[in-house]
Amino acid sequence: MNEHVWRTFKAVGEHQSLSQAARALNLSQSAVSQQIHQLESAYGTPLLIRTSQGVRLNDAGEIVYRYVTQLLQTWEASKQAVAQHLADAPARLTVGASLTIAEFILPRVLARMSQARPRPQFTLYMANSHDIKDRVMHKDIDLGLIEAPLSNTALAARPFLADRLHLVVSQSHPLANRNRITISELRQLPLVIREPGSGTRMVVESALGQLGISLNDLNIHFVLGTTQAIKAMIIQQQDASILSPYTILPHERHLFHIIDVEGLALLRHFTIIHHHEFVHPLAEALVRALMAENWGEMLS
């Protein structure tokens, strides 16, 4: 028996008229009659006494009326309790982010959003951009933040930050007094690069490909899985790498020197990805925060 039948019976008992109950409920009189008949069939007994002046509850109807009143009060109280629980409970969102974004970009925004009350709960999955795209596609995560271009039209993509990669060396490196080098010089440098599937690596491969150069043409010493490991190797081994300037934190700037490579197009966009039909209030709040952030402050 659904809620509408209970409410119809209660209204008939209170108005003592099928027509008046129908008007109060914005129903037709025949619809009210059908619902009362349905209820009487369920109980196996008449619940109303029908007279020329209208209707009134019989003894069985009085019993049902008392229970129906309690039932509807309990139903309303339960809805209010659940609504209050949802209002008090923290919102939850599963975010997948590429390593550069997870380590150096996202904490700035999440720290600010965590000041809201109730505090939102984020579950963060870190992987390279290729893996993040796969997990968003399979709905293992709600929202993805990637560094590599997105070619899959099944997902919505919203760029939120332009990022230009640079060659990075230590301050004690022989090139630390240079602000620009040529492609020929880059090909001779001992390099540390990210692993396959990394957004940073994809951008470098694409830029080199436009010049007819592959990674195999470079002097690659190490392939490492995190930016932090690459930065440590730059300092310890005097190797160079191509990184985002956002990965050089303010307290590290005295350790590194940034160099442009002539003719190498290393511009990319950090991008939010999700399914087109995906709607989540906390996800929209995160998107707005990412779009509105003054990212230039991180480089000043």
UniProtKB/TrEMBL annotation:
Protein name: LysR family transcriptional regulator
Any Pfam family hit: HTH_1
GO molecular function terms attached to this record: DNA-binding transcription factor activity; transcription cis-regulatory region binding
Family indicated by similarity: Belongs to the LysR transcriptional regulatory family.
All residue ranges annotated as the HTH lysR-type domain in the record: 1-58
InterPro entries per record: LysR_HTH_N, LysR_subst-bd, WH-like_DNA-bd_sf, WH_DNA-bd_sf
Source species: Sulfobacillus harzensis
S-adenosyl-L-methionine among keywords: no
PROSITE patterns: HTH_LYSR
Keywords noted in UniProt: DNA-binding, Transcription, Transcription regulation
